[in-house]
Amino acid sequence: MGRWIFHFPTFAWEQRKLGDIVDITMGQSPNGENYTENPDDHILVQGNADIKNGWVVPRVWTTQVTKSADKGDIILSVRAPVGDVGKTQYDVVLGRGVAGIKGNEFIFQTLNKMNLNGFWTRYSTGSTFESINSNDLKEALISIPEEAEQTKIGEFFEKLDNFITLHQRKP
C-alpha cells in the first residue's frame, strides 16, 4: 500500500496592523427622519441586528447616504456586541454601529476567528458601553501570510462554511 506525502509551501507569516493591509470605513448614522421601510431606498446597516449567519440582511432603509460600503465588503460591528462580522451582497449605508472593511475571504475568516476568541472584549473592560473606535481597529494586530496563501486559506474556509451550512439545512 502506497503512502501519501504532501508538500506544503511554508511562507513566513507576518504580524501586521489591520489598518495597514485593508481600507476601513467607520460608519456614521444618517438622521433619523431619513430612515424608511422602502426597499427602493438605500440599505442601512446599523449593527449586529442587521447581520445574520455571516451576511447582511436588509431591515432598515434610508434616503440619506453618510458613509458607505460596497457589495462584497466585510461589515464589522463596532458597538455592543463588538466583533460580529458579516459580508454584504449589497451596496449599503454604514451606521455608527459598524465599520466597512475592504478585505478578502482570509480577512473575513480572521476577523470571525478574532471575534470567536474574544479578541475585542479587551476594549470593553471597565467601560459601561462596549465599543471600539477607528484607532482600535486600525491598530489590531493580525498574522497574515503572503497573498497567494491568503487566497487558498480563504477559499478553503469559505467552502467549509458552505458545506456546514448545506448540512445544517438538511432535515
Helix content: 25-40%
What is the chain-wise order of helices and strands? EHEEEEEEEEEEEHHEH
Low confidence ranges:
none
Strand content: 25-35%
Assembly type = single chain
Principal-axes shape call? globular
Rg from C-alpha positions? 18 Å
Separation of the first and last Cα atoms: 39 Å
Number of helical regions? 4
Average pLDDT, all residues = 89
Strand order of the largest sheet: 3-7-4-11-8
Number of strands: 13
| Biggest sheet layout | 5 strands, mixed
Content-based structural category:
alpha+beta
Structure description:
β9 and β10 (85-87) form a beta hairpin. By secondary structure, this protein is an alpha+beta fold. The strands form four sheets. Strands 3-7-4-11-8 form a five-stranded mixed beta sheet, with no helix packed on it. The protein has a four-stranded antiparallel beta sheet with strand order 2-12-9-10. The model has no long low-confidence stretch (mean pLDDT 89). α2 packs across α4. Helices cover 26% and strands 25% of the residues.
